[in-house]
Amino acid sequence: MKIRLISFTGRGQALAEDLAEKLGGEAQRCGHPLSLSEWTQAAFREADALVFVGAAGIAVRAVAPYLAGKDRDPAVVAVDETGRFAVPLLSGHLGGANDLAGRIAACCGAQAVITTATDVNGVFAADLWARHQGCAVLNVGKIKEVSSRLLSGGTVTVKSDWQIAGDPPDGVRVSENGACDVRVTVRREKEGPLLVVPKILVLGIGCRKDTPQEKIERAFQVLLEEEQLLAEAFALAATIDRKGEEPGLLAFCEKHGLPLRTFTSQQLQETEGDFSASAFVREITGTDNVCERSAVCAGKGALIVKKRAADGVTCAVAQMPFAPDWR
Known about the structure:
- The protein has three domains: 3-115, 3-Layer(aba) Sandwich (Rossmann fold); 126-198, Udp-n-acetylmuramoylalanyl-d-glutamate--2,6- Diaminopimelate Ligase, Chain: A, domain 1, CATH 3.40.1390; 201-319, CobE/GbiG C-terminal domain (Nucleotidyltransferase, domain 5, 2-Layer Sandwich).
- Helices cover 35% and strands 25% of the residues.
- It has helices at 10-23, 36-46, 56-63, 97-108, 117-120, 126-132, 141-151, 213-227, 247-256, 265-270, 279-285, 291-299, and strands at 3-7, 26-29, 49-53, 75-79, 85-90, 111-112, 135-138, 156-160, 172-174, 182-184, 194-198, 201-207, 234-240, 260-263, 302-310, 313-319.
């Protein structure tokens, strides 16, 4: 988590610097050099969490112009300069503000002031659970429906493509068939349930020299459509090392927020699995398959979509191991 802290007094700055050291963040005194609005605008764009060491009202007014949505806003926490209270103000669950307030409290002896209804009532929170499982949450408007039903004493059903270890919390029932309220999957679903999407897919890519970003994008979109996969489920892209500096591939990865991992031809050839072999590809690259082997090599998991070739771009998908539980 990339954390930015700002303070407004000498005492507040001392606390901000102490928290920055313990949390791995960056602390700044307001006005040195950025103004409050300049700092907030930059931090909202670049950081995962903003910590205001000062009055909660200052934080609320500072972030108000930049609010975009609970699935897009960073975590925002206010801490008084004496370190007595840590108050999550924004993105308590999806952004991790509640967890961050707890970490801050542990660092300086503060009291984390948690106000989200599911937490104070001890009710299962689907969005917080998803975050702890390393998953994205889609159609976030459904979060309110799920939480409201649980808060009123009702039951919600969860259907998962993976067995979830442990016993489900109160009010939650696991369903294997039929309709559900929460769906754990990497594939597209009809409108209805809250989608919890594990970020466990690896996109293996092979391409010709100087392939433009647009061609790679088209190949990816066709892959998503034909395999009914969710773009939010992809965690990595992978290829052979000689393609690691391709401008079009790097631009594609940056657009989708995918780290690019590269492997030597020897590493790829030594990767075990049932791959589509090409003598021509091996003659050119030193390995008989780039996209399938790189996807498996990066993800250490199973190949779920074999090589697809179109317009000089090859794609394959591997799935990393995933073992959810009810934590």
